[in-house]
Write a structure and sequence with these properties.
The complex is a heterodimer of chains A (567) and B (681). Chain A is built from 19 helices and four strands. Chain A is an all-alpha fold and 567 residues long. Chain B has a seven-stranded mixed β-sheet, sandwiched between helices. The two termini of chain B are 54 Å apart. The chains are: A mainly alpha (567), B alpha+beta (681).
């Protein structure tokens, strides 16, 4: 078998194998059952006492949301403050300047919402202080926010009727102490051993083999990269992210960083089943997610390994695959694997330039973010999926002649209204954002010439990608887009905020409303949701609701490019 | 009763519906249906574009003919959707009207407040008026007995010939118009004002004036509004996209894309489906007080069924003669037969039949009745019989009633007879004791006959996930026997109305939805408590008020049909929604290449159907979109067939038919239409 293919099969296979026990473990700690990490409990109690928090107080879904949003506001203020003043703060050996207000606004939001869209380059745009105490800090807490919100939904779907859905701070702190910290620490350690810097030193001048003298950036990179991969954050220490030789030095680090992208999202889907004591349910969710993921992944790997016909026509050998924008140490297959995994989850770190992917691969990365539920971000991926489950349950409930119910709770007009708003939000943000930019550009191509490196279909894809990435809280860029301008900073900033909080508020509200309803025991007439049939239904609901709306846009971007390229 | 096998499109109804289809174009009416309302807006825009082209041709917008065709097809789409709703309404109204006609006009003897009597027509009776009915007369209208006791033949409505006893006070005080008083005289107070009967209420519901959307319908409308909104966004943002790509798009193409993508199929049929559901209930002779009740019926988990009439045939049948010690079999059979020859009750008739089977010829016994006096069954004596010309008194009746007679006359009531009575009861039967001059002759065993096919119906219910509970006044032994034989899941024996109530409460506590049927006033709380309460038309006014459906046939098995009607209603909505949304895939592949093919020839690759030209592709898509609505009207009216095969199997089946079918059918349909349309362009 082709060595490259074997490599990516091993990466994905072993990630899934790791995710299964991790899923069980997540269910255990969130249920509050005994686990081997209980030795951390005194430390957690200390944190709660310091914060004056009663971690045993049950909260209603509204209280959860208030807690979540309040703490996010505080973080936003902190991030804005640090980014605007980083030039004068300590730990800035390279003397990088403070950010401009619109860039700081964009960056603060981008990290606050777990998106990590970067309209700056880490080497010159941030300082070690802001990287560690602002950006890395947010990478931990925002990932934990998503996980905590997800557990609230898990809790609400238990049997019986209840108002109280556990304690937000308890879920939040445990997500960090028991999951994110240990996993990122382990990954960071491997990275350090593989050559990723972990120091506070300034740039080092070196002379390359070619005889050029360059300044190489260093800093506390390994620590940030660990959580960047684990928490579906994706905001790299260096500008080119994991394509940078120090951020992702070897094939081994590439494999581990890549596996880390999907590890917690997969485990979270499985944890859903384990948490409710219905493992089949977790497997159904995992199955649907994996089917959707593979539908995007397989053609991408094939196309990238096949090479680019336009370059082949120039007489350049394409036997290694389409290598434009890719790293030789990683190769075409592993780059394709990363490209899809980083976009189906809301990670957004890259090890190759998505701008250079063949058109259909580029479209698949877009589709991964447009659906945003095939694994999805830590915690929030399941929340998005949950909305699609609600819609699928509703339609299929009607199809079997029963008032739709999910896990013993009736789905009625209120839940439907919320689910539809959330499902609508994504196409709304992406399409209107892109439409406004396209309109501006079309109205005055010379004034906005700086926006698009490639006009035409590809330029359209670049704009579409930027908004899709923002709305999916992904944060990867198609590059080629001159995005550090007030228009892009502010418009994507707004998209990011709306696309982060509404899809958290919506599912939590639905779950909270469901939890209050009377529980209906299962009977032979009840539609079982842990079956393959229902899985197929969810799968099609996702494609038809989330993907179909983008068909015209995709036709004008990647599809037009593809059919022109492969004519 | 109206003919049940009406064809779907009777010419008179179609004519009425076509007229209504135009009336319903009124935007104030259309506004209730967000999906079709947006189509109406699109049609109006197309109208102005077309008119504009007449004065100032614009090559970018296409020819006048093309634009007019698009406008016309959109207009047809609206009419088709309105027609679907109108035909459903017309059918419902026709059904209700024919039901109303079955209520015949009968004379009534009204007692005035001053005590004088006035003859009136039943149609003139007002609520609160009091009338008197004597033996042999028809009861003119529904009411409550305020004086007297009578045996009443309700076979005209119930189909059951055994007379029932109705008396003032208590639960059995309600009488129904059209039934006949057999004995005694009663004074009845009218309980419903003319025009306010349940039937009248139901007609108002069907006609739409008081029709409210059910919770499921509201939720579905939200979903459909969501889908409509998505495509508003898609179409509006397409304009700047096209601007960027330098591919101008004509107004007709925008509107065509939008109308094709929004779920017009289900949007156009939604209210027709709801009305048709109530209409189907009405066709089954069930009057529903709201559309919600029909839907709830589809969700029922537990079904409380009365034994008599539901599980067993209302009439018990004689199955055995058991002579008392010292009495010859021949003698016993003969005397039992003689006492039953003039007895018109089903029990009496079945005794004669059983005698014939035992080689006793009833015709030869008839001569003994010369000069005989018939003794009718009364509620007090609880026995009936004959006194022959020679003075011989033959009586048959309940065991304790005959026992009292025998013991009063100083005759022995044999232990053997008492044992036999007990044995018959524990075997699920009813013992009838026969005496001659107060001497016990023996026991006739009457057995409940389990309805043929009832086991299969319960099997079907079980497959739907519904638990059946038999309610009976019988002792637990008899009840258990019959319950097992009929295959019900549970039973309540020696049931008092409070027991029903308790059972319902307990099941509801577990989160289950319960349906029950009842007739008595003391059933009223239970009927109100049950999620679906079906009151029999013969029941008391209180019962009818408490339930949310009234069964005109007083047929307890009706609950099963009602459940299926409810399920069908939801399924029809679900499957047509799926079909409608699945259609979008093909429509995209028809319209998107048509929009861009001229400016971006490479996108011709998306024209997988090989449609002739952009214009023919767009026309084919809108024509398909319009035609699919009338094509599906029959399905909307009849409902999707329900098969009790379990929810997952049902979902698989419907996904295959309506999901996969919904993807494939439009590809074929649009291609065929394109071949035809292409020939004209």
């Amino acid at each position: 078998m082709n060595k490259e293919l074997l490599g990516i099969l091993l990466i994905f296979g072993s990630t899934v194998l790791l995710a299964i026990p991790l899923g069980r473990y997540l269910a255990t700690i969130y249920r509050g059952d005994k686990s081997w990490t209980d030795f951390l409990a005194p430390f957690e109690r200390l944190l709660f006492r310091a914060g004056g928090i009663d971690a045993n107080r049950g909260m209603t879904w509204q209280q959860h949301l208030v807690a979540l949003l309040t703490i996010n506001m505080v973080w936003f203020g902190w991030a804005l403050l640090v980014l605007c003043t980083q030039g004068s703060l300590p730990l800035n050996p390279d003397h990088n300047p403070s950010m401009s207000p619109d860039q700081a606004f964009n960056t603060a939001i981008s990290f606050l919402v777990n998106c990590n869209l970067q309209h700056y380059s880490g080497e010159s745009g941030a300082t070690y202080f802001s990287q560690v105490f602002c950006l890395m800090f947010l990478q931990f807490v925002t990932a934990a926010t998503g996980m905590a919100a997800c557990v609230v939904v898990f809790n609400a779907l238990k049997e019986g009727t209840t108002e109280k859905l556990g304690n937000f701070y308890n879920y939040f702190v445990k997500s960090i102490t028991r999951v994110l910290l240990p996993l990122s620490l382990a990954l960071a350690l491997v990275l350090v051993f593989q050559g990723t810097p972990m120091n506070w030193a300034a740039k080092a001048p070196i002379v390359t083999v070619q005889g050029d003298s360059v300044n190489v950036s260093r800093g506390p990179a390994a620590a940030l990269i660990g959580i960047k991969q684990m928490g579906t954050n994706g905001g790299g220490f260096f500008g080119v992210n994991s394509a940078h030789p120090l951020e992702n030095p070897t094939y081994l680090t590439n494999a581990l960083e890549n596996g880390a992208i999907v590890l917690i999202p997969i485990a979270m889907a499985l944890a859903f089943g384990f948490y409710l004591g219905r493992p089949r349910l977790g497997w159904m969710v995992f199955g649907v997610m994996t089917a959707g993921y593979l539908l995007l992944q397989v053609p991408t790997v094939a196309l990238e390994m096949h090479g680019n016909p336009a370059i082949a026509r120039l007489g350049v050998d394409q036997s290694l695959g389409s290598m434009e924008g890719k790293e030789v140490r990683v190769g075409a297959a592993a780059s394709a694997l990363w490209a899809i995994q980083t976009t189906v989850t809301s990670n957004g770190s890259v090890n190759a330039m998505h701008d250079s992917l063949t058109p259909i691969s580029g479209m698949n990365t877009l589709l991964g973010m447009m659906t945003n539920a095939f694994y999805g971000g830590v915690g929030v991926g399941f929340l998005n999926f949950f909305v699609f489950i609600i819609v699928a349950v509703f339609i299929s409930g009607l199809m079997v002649g029963r008032t739709p119910e999910f896990l013993g709770k009736k789905i009625e007009a209120r839940e439907m209204k919320i689910a539809i708003i959330i499902a609508l939000l994504h196409p709304l943000l992406i399409l209107t954002g892109t439409a406004m930019s396209a309109h501006l550009y079309a109205g005055n191509p010379t004034e906005y010439a700086g926006w698009l490196a490639n006009p035409g279909y590809h330029g359209f894809s670049e704009m579409l990608y930027e908004y899709t990435s923002s709305a999916a809280n992904n944060g990867s860029g198609f590059e080629g887009l001159g995005d550090n301008t007030p228009w892009w900073n502010i418009s994507t900033g707004i998209v990011m905020v709306l696309a982060r909080y509404l899809p958290i508020i919506g599912p939590v509200a639905i779950a909270g409303l469901l939890a209050r309803k009377k529980f209906i025991p299962e009977s032979a007439g009840t539609l079982r949701v842990d079956t393959a049939t229902f899985g197929v239904m969810v799968f099609f609901v996702i494609w038809i609701i989330a993907a179909l709306a983008f068909f015209p846009a995709l036709a004008l971007g990647p599809l037009a490019e593809h059919f022109t390229l492969y004519q | 009763m109206a003919t049940k096998s009406q064809s779907l499109f009777q010419p008179a109804l179609v004519r009425e519906a076509v007229g209504q289809a135009f009336v319903k174009l009124d935007p104030r009416v259309m506004f209730r249906n967000p999906v079709m309302f947006t189509v109406e807006i699109g049609t109006v825009v197309m109208f102005f574009v077309t008119i504009g082209l007449l004065f100032k041709p614009d090559a970018a917008q296409g020819s006048f003919g093309y634009n007019f065709t698009v406008f016309f097809v959109l207009f047809l789409t609206l009419l088709f959707a309105n027609f679907a709703e109108a035909i459903a309404e017309a059918r419902g109204k026709a059904q209700a009207d024919s039901l109303r006609k079955t209520r015949q006009d009968t004379p009534a003897n009204v007692r005035q407040p001053d005590g004088s009597m006035v003859a009136m027509s039943s149609a003139q009776l007002q609520k609160g008026q009091v009338f008197v009915v004597e033996a042999g007369e028809l009861i003119p209208t529904d009411g409550e007995i305020i004086e007297g006791l009578a045996t009443i033949d309700e076979s005209a409505i119930t189909g059951e010939s055994a007379p029932v006893i109705r008396e003032a006070g208590g639960d059995k005080s309600s009488v129904t118009g059209g039934t006949k008083v057999l004995s005694d005289r009663i004074v009845v107070q009218v309980t419903t004002a003319p025009g306010e009967s349940f039937l009248d209420k139901m007609i108002a519901l069907v006609e739409g004036a008081s029709r409210q959307k059910t919770p499921n319908e509201i939720a579905l409308t939200i979903l459909l509004a969501g889908f409509t909104l998505v495509f508003v966004i898609v179409c509006v943002t397409l304009q700047p996209f096209a601007e960027y790509s330098k591919t101008p798009i004509a107004v007709a193409s925008f509107i065509a894309l939008f109308v094709c993508l929004i779920p017009t199929t289900i949007g156009g049929l939604l209210s027709a489906i709801g009305i048709a559901g109530m209409d189907r209930a009405l066709r089954a002779n069930v009057i529903t007080k709201s559309g919600k009740a029909v839907e709830t019926a589809g969700d029922i988990d537990v079904l409380l069924l009365d034994k008599t009439g539901t599980i067993t045939i209302g009439n018990r049948k004689a199955t055995h003669f058991w002579p008392a010690p010292g009495v010859g079999m021949q003698e016993f059979i003969e005397q039992a037969t003689v006492s039953s020859l003039t007895d018109e009750t089903p029990e009496g008739k079945s005794i004669v039949e059983l005698a014939r089977d035992n080689k006793v010829d009833p015709a030869q016994l008839r001569s003994r009745l010369d000069g005989a006096e018939l003794i009718k069954f009364t509620a007090e004596t609880r026995s009936s019989g004959v006194t022959l010309g020679n003075g011989t008194r033959i009586r048959k009746g309940a065991a304790d009633a005959i026992r009292k007679l025998a013991e009063a006359a100083g005759n022995v009531y044999h232990d053997d007879v008492a044992d036999r009575v007990k044995a018959v009861a524990s075997n699920g039967g009813t013992p009838l004791v026969v005496s001659e001059n107060d001497r016990v002759l023996g026991v006739v065993e009457l057995q409940d006959i389990i309805k043929p096919g009832i086991q299969e119906r319960f099997e079907r219910l079980r497959a739907m996930g519904i638990k059946t509970v038999m309610v009976t006044g019988d002792n637990p032994l008899t009840a258990k026997f019959i319950a097992e034989k009929a295959g019900v899941d549970d039973f309540i024996a020696e049931a008092k109305p409070e027991d029903k109530m308790q059972y319902i409460r307990a099941e509801q506590q577990l989160g289950k939805l319960v349906a029950m049927m009842g007739d008595g006033t003391n059933d009223a709380p239970a009927l109100a408590q049950a999620d679906v309460g079906v009151a029999m038309n013969s029941g008391t006014q209180a019962a009818k008020e408490a339930g949310n459906m009234v069964d005109l046939d007083n047929d307890p098995t009706k609950l099963i049909e009602v459940v299926e009607i409810g399920k069908q209603l939801l399924m029809t909505r679900g499957t047509l929604t799926t079909f409608s949304i699945a259609n979008d895939v093909a429509k995209y592949f028809a319209i998107v290449p048509a929009l861009f093919m001229v400016a971006i020839p490479a996108l011709g690759a998306l024209n997988v159907m090989g449609l002739k030209s952009p214009q023919s592709a767009i026309l084919s898509a809108v024509i398909f979109n319009a035609l699919i609505i009338p094509a599906l009207v029959p399905l909307a009216l009849k409902g999707v067939a329900y098969k009790p095969v379990g929810a997952s199997a049902l979902l698989r089946r419907n996904l295959l038919i309506y999901g996969l079918g919904g993807v494939v059918v439009p590809f074929i349909g649009i291609k065929i239409i394109d071949l035809i349309v292409g020939a004209f362009l």
